[in-house]
Amino acid sequence: MINSINLQNFRNFKKKVIDFSEKLTVIVGPNASGKTNILESLYLLSSGKSFKAQIEEEMIGYTAEIARISGKMIGLDLEAILTRDVDGWPKKRLLVNGVPKRLIDFAGNFKVVLFGPWDLDLVTESPSLRRRFLDSTLSQVDREYRRAILSYDKGLRQRNRLLFRIREEGISRGQLLFWNQLLIKNGDYISGRREELINFINSKKDINNTKFEISYDKSSISEGRLKQYVEEEIAAGTTLVGPHRDDFLFRIQVNKKETRDLATYGSRGEQRMGILWLKLRELAFVEDKTNENPTLLLDDIFSELDHPHRDVVFSVVGNQQTIITTADEHFIKSFKNSNLIKL
Ligand SMILES: Nc1ncnc2c1ncn2[C@@H]1O[C@H](COP(=O)(O)OP(=O)(O)O)[C@@H](O)[C@H]1O
Ligand SMILES: [Mg+2]
């Protein structure tokens, strides 16, 4: 649970302190007033990363050189300091109680489940979005997963460079072995955890009188598979198998015996209900793994949802600390006893 944040030169906020309720906080403001930016700062304190910036420097106020984002939890001060690229300075520093931390040790102290309009395309959009869902969920609860992902991504870049050079410069293939081992070791861990998460999600399929499930479309990585694809990989100059090619598919139950692919057969409304189901299962997963209630961050989603969908979201708002943003004052009436913040 987060008690307050203090933003300095973060996005459009020169200086901004916000106190949060331990139950519900509603942030109201017109378009471009910085609602999503506030949730981005909270996500940054949670994960050490932005959920939308391509380059982290984007988060620093236009005319500033340095941004500070700090948050107070009970007994824990989190801080992220972002600087522009000046020689000798790290561009991002992450601190817990004033002590510098590596990303994998900073992340996971403050747990959040974030839900915004961009999630509403999760069923139909590209696999990278669904992989990001798996990674951000598992990264919250598992330090070893965070480490494995960083190591895998680094190894993947090196191996791809090598494949390219084997093709272009004809250098020896021997060096592939080292990277193969590294990718297999981390890849096994990553797909194992993803499998567990997917099984957990499927352990409760019901929502609003409908049943959903997801199925893991796993791209396994092993010596055998890498051997099988090595010629194709050299020709392509890139690694073709492994968890970076994973995906999962949504299915909806259509009668007692049958399920169907939600992306192909589901209505828009059913697809959205499937996404709500997934997000609620994410919330349950983080709770189950950590014995803590994550903070629920809802970014301007009510205007995007119709009644049955809204009711599903309303039904869980009281279960944990929740921070909601909205541009529409009219939704405020739905939330009694909330801490109201106007931008
Ligand atoms: N680095 C930055 N410095 C100053 N302002 C920024 C920066 N990045 C984004 N903004 C401003 O933030 C505003 C958008 O904030 P956002 O949180 O998306 O608004 P909302 O969610 O309330 O619609 C835009 O006006 C944009 O110009
Ligand atoms: Mg917004």
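^ adenosine-5'-diphosphate complex. The longest helix spans residues 143-169. Residues 11-12, 29, 31-37, 58, 60-62 surround adenosine-5'-diphosphate (ligand 1) (CB under 6 Å).
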